[in-house]
Amino acid sequence: MTEVAKTLAQHAISGVPVCEADGRLVGIITEGDLVRPLMRSREKRRDWWLRQLAEGTDLAPEFLNYVKSDKAVARDLMHHNVITATETTHVGEIAELMMINDIKRVPIVRADGTLAGIVTRADLVKTMARNPDALLNPSA
Fold first, then answer.
1. Which residues face 119 on adjacent strands?
2. 100-109: per-residue pLDDT in tens?
3. At 140, is the secondary structure helix, strand, or coil?
4. Quick one: 68 exposed, middle or buried, by C-beta within 10 A (0-12, 13-18, 19+)?
5. What is the CA radius of gyration of the chain?
6. Rounded distance between C-alpha atoms, residue 8 and residue 50, angstroms
7. Cα dist. 42→2, 64, 67, 133 in Å?
8. CA distances (Å), 88 to each of 96, 115, 136, 140, in order?
9. What is the pLDDT of residues 27-46, one digit of tens each?
10. Angle between helices 61-68 and 31-55 (to 10 degrees)
């Protein structure tokens, strides 16, 4: 997970696609996905301390698992059911997908499932700044 965090930080982005070697999109991992286990571990540590104080027992198995979780890979934390669009999806439809699904990015995939790119909320804002009517959905 360190490599994912480094990638996000180096490129000043908040999420990256996860692809198979052949380029097929299999998931997406975000800052929130990286932070979520830390929040869970915090709760586990609190529970562990409470058990230690109350029972005086050995280390809780959950705590030991967290300590060993340094070996986690992107597949362990990523979102598997990714909302995607195609290269021909209108930008207004992509904006609608983001709003309806409360997501910050939409991967663009080709017919064979390979990743063509990603549209982010920042991309939509830039598009609106250049052309305010660009997000109007022609099918609406």
1. 106
2. 999 999 999 9
3. coil
4. exposed
5. 20
6. 35
7. 19, 13, 12, 46
8. 15, 14, 15, 16
9. 999 888 877 766 655 555 55
10. 140
Is the distance from CB of 115 to CB of 109 less than 8 angstroms? yes
**Predicted local confidence at residue 108, as pLDDT:** 97
3-class DSSP assignment, residue 93: helix
The residue with tokens 């934390």 is: 77
Q: If 0-12 CB within 10 Å is exposed, 13-18 middle and 19+ buried, where does residue 107 land?
A: buried
Q: What is the largest CA-CA distance in the chain?
A: 66
pLDDT digits 0-9 by tens, 70-122: 566 777 778 889 999 999 999 999 999 999 999 999 999 999 999 999 999 99
Classified as helix, coil or strand, 133 is: coil
Report how far apart, in Å, the C-alpha atoms of 60 and of each of 30, 55, 73, 114 are.
Answer: 29, 11, 23, 42
